[in-house]
């Protein structure tokens, strides 16, 4: 009988429920769960497999450690994916092939010209070399030509007076008379020597073209063997003085010396030495006299023709003829020329 005042009697316990303070049926005394602790779980935190006592049956069958169905389609031949130790790992990206770079094709180097030297071959090579750097050649020819004209006028006062008083006949006669004195001729010879030193810059450019074909501004200022060039400039001044002092014979002497000494400036720029350059230059001309006469005649004819263009044609004629001379001297002495 129950206590109507809320008391409790053992008879009120529901069937199968152990009395308060007693362990459940089937659990020995002293092994009950302490108060406040959760029931024991799987030490690895895994969910009990389906089919165990007290768990509902999973319709997809057993699951893997990540909670995914081991056989989601119920196929008897299904094999779950195998993962390496430590879980799923991303597959390594396939190795990439290195980017193949197209090799840069180098420009073919100019070949040396080993053909027998002739005027035609020298002329063709000279025009090709001039065309390869025509802007540089024209610029240097104009600059050096203007400098040479300034030197001639500066060292020939009578010529300058005649140009300034071209309409006054009396002034012209006085200027011509002043130009016939020895002092005026000596001063003009000094101007000739200086003009050769300026022209030596073009010789240096022509000799550089035989090695590289194309030239730059700095190539004109590599005056190797400057001592020999200075001595040759004095010799050119002496020849100029003789040609001015002796009107007819002097002009002939100057023409012969110019022909025989054509190779000398190129040899001096190769540091041959003044004495050896003089002897070697004369020997080269005598050994190839026909070719030397042909070159000299062509140059003289083109120089005369340039008079009708007020000297402008010399801007092209002078560099080309110097290139012809450089080609022949290099080939006559056994040197190669870039074609």
How would you describe the overall organization of this protein?
The chain is mostly helical. It has a domain at 128-338. It has helices at residues 119-132, 134-154, 157-164, 169-179, 182-212, 226-245, 249-260, 264-269, 274-287, 289-305, 314-332, and strands at residues 112-113, 337-338. A two-stranded antiparallel ribbon has the order 1-2. The model is unreliable at 1-14 (pLDDT under 50).
Layout of SSEs?
Blueprint: E1 112-113, H1 119-132, H2 134-154, H3 157-164, H4 169-179, H5 182-212, H6 226-245, H7 249-260, H8 264-269, H9 274-287, H10 289-305, H11 314-332, E2 337-338
Antiparallel strand pairs: 1-2
Helix pairs in contact: 1-11, 2-5, 2-11, 3-4, 5-6, 5-11, 6-7, 10-11
Keywords:
339 residues, mainly alpha, two-stranded antiparallel sheet, 2 strands, disordered N terminus, membrane, transmembrane, Putative membrane protein, transmembrane helix
């Amino acid at each position: 009988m129950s206590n109507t005042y809320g008391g409790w009697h053992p008879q009120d316990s529901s069937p199968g429920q152990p009395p308060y303070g007693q362990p459940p049926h089937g659990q020995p005394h002293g092994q009950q769960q302490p108060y406040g602790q959760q029931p024991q779980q799987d030490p690895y935190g895994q969910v009990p497999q389906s089919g165990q006592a007290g768990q509902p049956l999973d319709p997809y069958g057993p699951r893997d450690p990540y909670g995914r169905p081991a056989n989601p389609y119920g196929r008897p031949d299904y094999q779950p994916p195998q993962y390496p130790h430590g879980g799923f790992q991303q597959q390594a990206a396939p190795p990439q092939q290195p980017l193949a770079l197209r090799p840069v094709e180098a420009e073919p180097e100019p070949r040396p010209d080993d053909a027998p030297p002739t005027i035609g071959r020298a002329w063709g090579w000279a025009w090709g070399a001039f065309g390869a750097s025509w802007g540089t050649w024209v610029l240097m020819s104009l600059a050096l030509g203007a400098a040479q004209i300034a030197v001639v006028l500066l060292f020939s006062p009578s010529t300058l007076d005649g140009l300034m008083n071209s309409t006054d006949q009396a002034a012209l006669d006085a200027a011509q008379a002043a130009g016939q004195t020895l002092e005026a001729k000596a001063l003009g010879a000094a101007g000739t020597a200086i003009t050769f030193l300026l022209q030596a810059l073009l010789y240096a450019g022509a000799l550089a073209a035989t090695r590289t074909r194309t030239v730059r501004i700095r190539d004109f200022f590599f005056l190797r063997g400057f001592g020999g060039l200075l001595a040759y400039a004095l010799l050119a001044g002496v020849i100029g003085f003789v040609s001015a002092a002796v009107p007819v014979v002097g002009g002939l002497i100057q023409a012969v010396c110019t022909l025989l000494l054509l190779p000398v400036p190129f040899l001096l720029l190769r540091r041959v030495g003044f004495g050896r350059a003089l002897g070697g230059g004369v020997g080269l001309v005598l050994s190839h006299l026909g070719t030397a006469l042909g070159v000299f005649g062509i140059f003289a004819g083109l120089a005369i023709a340039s008079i009708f263009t007020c000297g402008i044609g010399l801007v092209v004629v002078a560099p080309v003829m110097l290139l012809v001379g450089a080609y022949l001297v290099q080939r006559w002495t056994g040197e190669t020329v870039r074609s």
